[in-house]
Amino acid sequence: MSKLKFVLFAVAAITLGSQINAQEVQISKEELIALTPAWKGERFPDGRPKVPDAILKRMKLVSVEEAWSTMKNAGYGFQIAEGWKQINPDSVLVGRAFTTIFMPGRPDVWKAIDSVGKKKGWRAQNSWPIDMLSKGDVYVVNQFGAKVDGPTIGDNVGNAIYAKSGNGVVYDGALRDVEGLEEIGGFTSYYTSYDPSYHNPGRNPNTMIMGINKPTLIRQVTVMPGDVVLGRMGVVVFIPAHLAEQIVKTSEVVRLRDMFGHERLRAGTYTAGQIDGRWEEAIEKDFSKWLNDHIDELPVPKEQIQEILKERTW
Predict the structure, then answer these.
(1) β-bridge partners, 93
(2) CA separation (Å) from 126 to 169, 198, 255, 308?
(3) Do residues 66 and 247 touch, judged by C-beta distance below 8 A?
(4) Could you tell me if 241 and 79 are in contact, meaning their C-beta atoms sit under 8 angstroms apart?
(5) pLDDT in tens, the chain (314 residues)
(6) What is the Cα–Cα distance from 182 to 259, expressed in whole angstroms?
(7) Contact 308/256 with Cβ under 8 angstroms?
(8) Using CA atoms in the order 246, 252, 258, 261, what is the torsion angle rounded to 10 degrees?
(9) Residue 35 and residue 28: Cα distance in Å, rounded?
(10) Long-range contacts: 217-220, Cβ < 8 Å, 24+?
(11) Distance CA 171, CA 145 (A)
């Protein structure tokens, strides 16, 4: 093969590969790993960070302020999204982000994407990501705020999501069948609006799927697949996977210090100024002794308290 023919062949192969990749909506494992280099732990087969279930369980007690403070100190200042309607507002939503991106429908692009899905045996585009969910996931959807003819989730899809993940959704768009979704006991969810219509009526492509487990935008937050979702008090916090354990540990220490401080203030042992300011060494030693004396009674697991005591130097 001549040099010119080889170059032309290589260019054609690259161009064809780009066209195929452009139609593939799911991120590659290699790309996802490259975009989340700070995560050193276990990953799902597709490369998504897999924060341990034990950390997710402990995260349910973390406050929005505690999560925000730790992330802000680490340089992550834009991880909180507000302005949601809620399903089960008295419950806390915690799980690993499984992201999906929809965009306004365009017939030629919709057809190109749909043809790839059909070759894989996939059916309606709104169901493609649902079959990929795992237990502990939160389905995080950028639905570009679509309302009329926009909803891709109703009570049928909602039941499928809950069956696969055991969780609800964070959905920047309109849901339908909200009454039916409210009947799913653990479907704690955050969504933008309600509309009785459904997406792509009469095969008119009002919406089309453009990304599965790719970085996405939810409100002003850049959300990465595998981020830990914490929804409470009407806001949603997206925690980078590599910060999840640090946030949990910091929250537990703050919780215990608050309990100790309140108890000592009520007893008149210390003044408000002593507890509100930087603790003197004597107070720190008193706190360590208090932890050890009450280790079986406190709301933080015994193993975590022992870890705190081990790390202390006084």
Answers:
(1) 231
(2) 14, 11, 41, 46
(3) yes
(4) no
(5) 444 343 333 333 333 333 334 457 899 999 999 999 999 999 999 999 999 999 999 999 999 999 999 999 999 999 999 999 999 999 999 999 999 999 999 999 999 999 988 888 888 899 999 999 999 999 999 999 999 999 999 999 999 999 999 999 999 999 999 999 999 989 999 999 999 998 887 678 889 999 999 999 999 999 999 999 999 999 999 999 999 999 999 999 989 999 999 999 999 999 999 999 999 999 999 999 999 999 988 888 888 888 888 876 55
(6) 36
(7) yes
(8) -100
(9) 11
(10) 217/142, 218/81, 218/140, 218/142, 218/170, 218/172, 219/81, 219/82, 219/83, 219/172, 220/78, 220/81
(11) 9
Residue pair 218/196 in contact by the 8 Å Cβ criterion? no
User: Which tokens belong to 52?
Assistant: 């341990």
Are 158 and 181 a contacting pair, CB within 8 Å? yes
Tell me which amino acid residue 308 is.
I
